[in-house]
Amino acid sequence: MGAAFASVAGAGATTKTSRGTLHSFKSIAPNTWQLKTINRAKVKRYYRVHGETDCGVVRGQSGDQIPCKTLGKSKYAKKPVRVMWETIEGKKYATQVAVTIR
């Protein structure tokens, strides 16, 4: 999967950004998770998060990088989230995930 991700990303894949609320985060394979968000229009989106994804928390003007696997903790549930993603073989793969903590 990593090789496919790298080859498509290097082939001019377009990165998009979505915002919403972190609804769920669960493991679907070793070092791979599924992130579910809901936006204001109640649209649900699912993203694949893997070990190469940059994950972090934003606190006002500062932020910290965190291991992606910690996004399943209850303190991040229902928090605003920004996801930068690319479509690869019909699936959305997150390249960056930022949860806002206030």
Strand order of the largest sheet: 3-2-1-6-7-4-5
CATH class: Mainly Beta
Q: Gyration radius, to the nearest Å?
A: 13 Å
Q: Which CATH architecture?
A: Beta Barrel
- Helix proportion: under 10%
CATH topology: OB fold (Dihydrolipoamide Acetyltransferase, E2P)
- Rough outline: globular
The low-confidence runs, each spanning 5 or more residues with pLDDT under 50, are 1-11
Mean of residue pLDDT values: 88
Structural class by helix and strand composition: mainly beta
Count of distinct strands: 7
Series of H and E elements: HEEEEEEE
N-to-C terminal Cα separation, in Å? 35 Å
CATH superfamily placement: Nucleic acid-binding proteins
Largest β-sheet summary: 7 strands, mixed
Please sum up the structure shown.
The chain has 102 residues and is mainly β. The chain has one helix spanning 2-10, and strands at residues 16-29, 32-38, 44-50, 54-59, 62-65, 80-88, 91-100. The chain starts with a helix and ends with a strand.
Please, could you describe this protein's structure?
- This protein is mainly β.
- The protein has one domain: OB fold (Dihydrolipoamide Acetyltransferase, E2P) (Beta Barrel).
- Helix content is 9%, strand content 56%.
- It has 1 helix and 7 strands; from the N terminus they run H-E-E-E-E-E-E-E.
- The chain has one helix at 2-10; strands spanning 16-29, 32-38, 44-50, 54-59, 62-65, 80-88, 91-100.
- It has a 7-stranded mixed sheet.
- Strand 6 (80-88) and strand 7 (91-100) form a beta hairpin.
- The protein is globular.
- 21% of the residues are buried.
- The model is unreliable at 1-11 (pLDDT under 50).
